[in-house]
Amino acid sequence: MEFSLLGWWRVVLSAVAGLAALFLLAPLGLLIALSFDSSQWLQFPPPGWTLQWYAQVFADPNWLASLLTSLELGAVVTLASVLLGLLAGFAIARGSFPGRETLRGFFLTPMIMPSIVLGIALYAVFLRLHLAGTFLGFVLAHLVLALPFSIVAITGALEATDKSLEDAAMLCGAGLWEARVRVILPAIRHGIFSAAIFSFLTSWDEVVVAIFMASPGLQTLPVRMLGEVRQNLSPDIAVVSSLLVLGTLLLMGLAAIFNKDAKR
Q1: One digit per residue, pLDDT tens: the chain, 264 residues?
Q2: Stated pTM of the model
Q3: Cβ neighbours of residue 18 closer than 8 Å, sequence gap 6 or more
């Protein structure tokens, strides 16, 4: 009887979870369907199906310029975030200095701070430094947001790795950083990969802080999308949104596959 009741509860909870997931994902399906809408007014159900909006987006130099800006920015921010995250992670996970936990909390502050507050603060500082509206300003602003995710992933991987591996390498004649590069880094590759994925997605998806950093000649893809929604709601928005959803799913799928292989 107890087993039967437990089985029924599992069925009910699975059904509720499935309905909740369907409710959350249904708008994405609607969005993807609208990207193939033959009408320029985003009608649903679509009166017809077409690929012309995809061709129009890929032929628009403004969309391509924003896409290239987001890709370049994401690549630079990811590289800087992982490198700085490694240094901070080794200091937090392997260090024994006073105030280590305070330093950890300081690094994680941007994760709990409202984006609008952070955007206004960065804009005020960068305006004085003449960095507002520049690519370097974009990199620094997004790095502030991405670095906490990198530190969390790398620090967690380091804390889960046996420190005796590093000590054994040093006993065999390796220097401190040689042991960390040749022994520890391969052991925490799943953490590094996770840090890179989340750093890129943080930069790629950021819009609030990016609005303060943007200029007429330098806009990321999310900022341009927001401007298009305000000025001219067209199927182009549905196309770009669908491509972003697809790209995010591919990245998360690669992350899941990599982490699964790393655990074997």
Answers
A1: 445 666 677 788 888 888 888 888 888 878 888 788 777 777 677 777 888 888 888 888 888 888 898 899 989 999 999 999 988 888 887 777 777 778 888 888 888 888 888 888 888 888 888 888 888 888 999 999 999 999 988 888 888 877 777 767 777 777 777 777 777 788 888 888 888 988 998 888 888 888 888 877 788 888 888 887 777 777 788 888 888 888 778 877 777 776 665 555
A2: 0.80
A3: none
Could you count the other beta carbons within 10 Å of the beta carbon of residue 234? 16
Residue 133 zone, left/alpha/beta (φ > 0; ψ -120 to 50; rest) = left
Which of these, 92, 112, 116, lies nearest to 102 by C-alpha position?
92
What are the Cα distances from residue 93, in Å, to 9, 99, 112, 122, 259?
42, 13, 22, 29, 21
Alpha-carbon distances, residue 204 vs 17, 25, 34, 81, 211 (angstroms): 29, 21, 23, 13, 13
Q: How many CA atoms lie within 13 A of 96 on its CB side?
A: 0
What interhelical angle do 115-128 and 135-159 show, nearest 10?
130
Q: Which residues pair with 135 in a beta bridge?
A: none
Nearest to 33 by CA among 19, 18, 47: 47
Placement of tokens 């690519």 in the chain = 135
Summarize the chain as % helix, strand, coil (round to 5). Answer: 80, 0, 20
Residues 181-217 as b/e (b if ≥16 CB within 10 A, e otherwise) read: eebbeebbebbbbbbbbbbbbbbbbbebbbbbbbeee
**Among all chains, which residue has been given the structure tokens 């490198």?**
83
